Amino acid sequence: GREDREGARAAAVKAAEWLARERLGGEASGHDWHHADRVRRMALRLAPGEGADPFVCELAALLHDIADRKLVPDEELALTELESWLKRQPISGEDAGHVMEIIRTMSFRGGSGPPMRTPEGRVVQDADRLDAIGAIGIARTFAYGGRAGRPIFAPADGSRAAPEAADRRPPESGPSAVGHFYDKLLLLKDKLNTAEARAIAERRHRFMLAYLEQFYAEWEG
Ligand code: ADP
Ligand code: NI
């Protein structure tokens, strides 16, 4: 009956939380358990506006980075393992397949992949992208850069640090965390699928621009 199904769904969510905590734990590049948890909460917030199934959103959000190539040596193998894990959960084959489709499509990163096919996919992708901007997005970017051995900022020799405007890329001598703002963070607000995510992104985007202005002002002294 309906109660059985709700109970089974709650059990699957608990199991996914467990798996995400175990696999992502204290990961140090910004893809840790707390990222998965924030993406889950944001996905649940966006779901009603899109008529998306909150259960599929929640599972996909919790599991979306577990098989990411930045965290595992063999992404394809990790995806296959995740698929078998899902099949062992008390959920329908349809839901399991849908969650896998979302995770696989999202892993074509950088907006160059195919558009998400379902409302649930659009919601989870937006929730993941919102976690890449604003104060948290900034923190994750510097954490990632540090982990990858990159400098926080690498102004080109002889150039002023501050660009004309914070949204113009300053000349740099190589990759840096600040450079990543121009590669990705500042572009994300125009890549969102849902109206609610676009509204949330406005303020986070303005905050990043204000942050960069302050950053350059302090850099130049
Ligand atoms: P997705 O969220 O599509 O899986 P990534 O995992 O590549 O994208 O990025 C998630 C976050 O990790 C980014 O928003 C950023 O904070 C950080 N990150 C990823 N690549 C870089 C990079 N080259 N330099 C700095 N930060 C990065
Ligand atoms: Ni993510």
Please characterize this protein's 3D structure.
By secondary structure, this protein is mainly alpha-helical. It has 2 domains: 1-119, HD-domain/PDEase-like (Cyclin A, domain 1), CATH 1.10.472.50; 132-221, Methane Monooxygenase Hydroxylase, Chain G, domain 1 (Up-down Bundle), CATH 1.20.58. It is built from 9 helices and no strands. It has helices at residues 2-24, 33-50, 54-63, 75-87, 93-106, 119-130, 134-147, 177-183, 195-220. Helix 2 packs across helix 6 and helix 4 (75-87) packs antiparallel against helix 5 (93-106). The longest helix is centred in the C-terminal third of the chain and has 26 residues, at 195-220. The radius of gyration is 19 Å and the shape is elongated.
Write a concise synopsis of the structure shown.
By secondary structure, the chain is mostly helical. The protein has helices spanning 2-24, 33-50, 54-63, 75-87, 93-106, 119-130, 134-147, 177-183, 195-220.
Bound molecules: adenosine-5'-diphosphate, nickel (II) ion
What general outline do the C-alpha atoms trace?
elongated
Number of structural domains: 2
- What's the average pLDDT? 95
Extract low-pLDDT stretches: none
Count of DSSP strands: 0
Share in helix: 55-70%
Q: What is the name of the CATH architecture of the largest domain?
A: Orthogonal Bundle
Q: Report the span from N to C terminus.
A: 67 Å
SS content category: mainly alpha
- CATH homologous superfamily annotation of the largest domain: HD-domain/PDEase-like
N-to-C SSE string, H for helix and E for strand: HHHHHHHHH
Q: What about the largest sheet? A: none
- Share of residues in strands: under 5%
- Radius of gyration based on Cα positions: 19 Å
Name of the CATH class of the largest domain: Mainly Alpha
How many H/I helices?
9
- By CATH, the topology of the largest domain is Cyclin A, domain 1
